[in-house]
Amino acid sequence: MKPWILGLTGGIGSGKTAVADRFASLGVHVVDADQAARWVVESGRPALQQIVERFGQEVLLQSGELDRAGLRQKVFADGAERQWLEKLLHPLIRAEVARHLALAESPYAIMVSPLLVESGQYRQVGRVLVVDVPESLQIARTTARDQASEEQVRAILNAQAQREERLKHADDVLVNDRDLSWLAAEVERLHRFYLTLRGAQK
């Protein structure tokens, strides 16, 4: 029986990674779309070649790897360039995620994506789990983790799907505003429930 797919998402600083790691420790196959986004632009992959042809050598670091921050600045300043890049990368990322999900041997597998709702990826999964935290906690966690200013974090929050939009698509919500042992117990509770589902009937 093919594993069904759980989509895991949440805003910046919500603790998606901690939740995904917890599921992984229970033997669940986890694929991270952000990771896939890094794989598709690795040295030697065709996508990197196309990006260099489009934007020039200055989008490469000395090591020959993609300067992700530099590229991000270029495309955020120009909507048409961003669309070009998304058109190139999104199908590749989708294929990479699908390839890794196909390797799953657990009863269900998890696709972690911060843009699950915005990108429409939620249509490819059987259920959606949203990790949710109050905005004030998101800002506090992210500024501490990324050494980012509150303005930068607010800008990212505004670019991501608004909380209401994400929650509208949620089948399950995990409010991650307590400590790690509480989080572990919540994940185990959800895991037991997910094991009872076949093909994620709602």
Structure notes:
This protein has helices at 16-25, 33-39, 46-55, 68-76, 79-101, 135-146, 150-159, 163-168, 180-195, and strands at residues 4-10, 29-32, 108-112, 127-132, 172-175. The chain is built from nine helices and five strands. It folds into two domains: 1-28 and 107-202, Rossmann fold (3-Layer(aba) Sandwich), CATH 3.40.50.300; 35-105. The model has no long low-confidence stretch (mean pLDDT 88). The relative contact order is 0.22. The protein has a five-stranded parallel β-sheet with strand order 2-3-1-4-5, with helices on both faces. The chain has 202 residues and is of the alpha/beta class. Its main location: cytoplasm. InterPro entries: Depp_CoAkinase (IPR001977), P-loop_NTPase (IPR027417). ATP binds at residues 13-18.
What's the topology here?
Layout: E1 4-10, H1 16-25, E2 29-32, H2 33-39, H3 46-55, H4 68-76, H5 79-101, E3 108-112, E4 127-132, H6 135-146, H7 150-159, H8 163-168, E5 172-175, H9 180-195
Parallel strand pairs: 1-3, 1-4, 2-3, 4-5
Give a quick summary of the entry.
With 202 residues, the chain is of the alpha/beta class. It contains 9 helices and 5 strands.
Main attributes of the structure:
alpha/beta; 9 helices; Rossmann fold; 2 domains; 5 strands; 5-stranded parallel beta sheet
